[in-house]
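request received
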Amino acid sequence: MTAVVEVDGLTKTFGTLNAVDNVSFTVEENKIYGLLGRNGAGKTTLMQLLTGQDFATRGGIKVFGETPVENAKVLQNVCFIKESQKYPDDFKVKHVLTSAPWFFRNWDREYADRLVDDFRLPTNRRIKKLSRGQLSAVGVIVGLASRAPLTFFDEPYLGLDAVARQIFYDRLLEDYAEHPRTVILSTHLIDEVSNLLEHVLVIDEGRIIIDDDAEDLRGSATTVVGTRGAVDAFVERREVLHREGIGGLASVTIGALSGAERQHASDAGLELSPVSLQQLIVRKTNTSSTEFEQSA
Amino acid sequence: MTTTTQTRNSGGELQRVLNVTRLHLTNKFPIMVLPLLILGFIFLVNLMIWWLVFSAVGPADTADASQGMQFSGASTFIFVYMLVVAVQAVNLTFPFALGYSVTRRDFYLGTSVTFVLLSIYYAAVMTIMASIERATDGWGFGGGMFDVIYFRTENMLLQFVLFLLVFLFFFFVGAATSSVYVRWRANGMYVFFASLTVIVVGLAALATATESWGPVGEWFVTNGAIGVALWSLVLTALAAVTGFVLLRKATPKN
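response:
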């Protein structure tokens, strides 16, 4: 596998705040990555650093083997769709669609037109008159139709309704299958995208706390439900990610279980259920930071 | 069908720069048409006022009246408008272009090309209007809107160069000012305008203290419009370099 992005000891400081704190990871070619984390965790800053829009305080970034900062050779192959993207005053949707092909060599005009229809976007309307959802649709269309080898989507569907979001997921997967590329998607709606993602990066307070294959991650935690006594006995000496209970019942989230352990649990009258990616991340980003470092 | 999206090293440097220029000119109406419509409207209003004045003063005082109509500042608007165009180009098109994966350097060069092209375009319009104004003796009323006192040169080519230099000045000063904002936001603006005020007031105080307002005025008279415009190139170049240096380290913020 070829690494498209290599980040080593990356730090970005704003005043006394470490928005990105000594982060290292690699992104492999032709995979869909989820960059997940809470508001203010450092997702946007990290993406801005990777696309050369911001400057690192310390550490190294290599995109396609070179620094992205002011590097046209690298940036020509990158598309960064930002939730807060600004547009020139008085620009209409059609102006965006006219100008985008000059900057993205893989731009597919027909595909862009199809997407415009899918999202029911009025091309003759001014960008500043668009609704929040329509504005997001403009970004999504540019991100998909540009077919850049490395595409970033930063919260691409703010304000998009459920139907439009589903269109986005479907089109992304279809197009990705035909034109493999590397996609890095940042989002809050973890469960919605969880089936799309092949690899998950979770950032919290500027640090990468999870860098794992999505499939492995989904199997990495189990919830054990049963009577308090039985549950307590079963989870003893295991790392507990989360615990809740009502009366004599308890529900405890722990790590992965082997087949024998599952059998053992079911013999003890306990119910086992898988933990969704979203729940897992909520559990992990809620515990104290020392626990993260141990588990990460 | 599976076609891997290959990384491409496409488009030479010049092409990349010109793409930014095209980007600026994508929506032509607000920067190439609307200013002319406004200018045309101002011109019509001026024509009506001249006609009103002429009808009122009677034939005996026409010479005196046209003397008073040599300068109205009516065409100043177009220069200020271009300053605003430059401000918007940096404030809005800069973050937009970076979203299109344009380097800051390519953006600045492409933007500068745009400014030069627009300056040529508007200088040509102004020169043509000034020639007609001169040939028709102030549209038949002795009025002056394009061919105004002090800024008048005998040679029409020089007149064109004069307009060109003034437009370039407004574009690059607008871009540099906007760069201060894009780089340091509101705080940058406070410091910038405070410093500018101090410098201007300081220079005025200096001129007063050394009793050199006379020589200052003389300098403007001796150099003439074209001389002053040529000197403005120093400020224009300074603004152009400043804008470039500031934007090279600027980050598009929310």
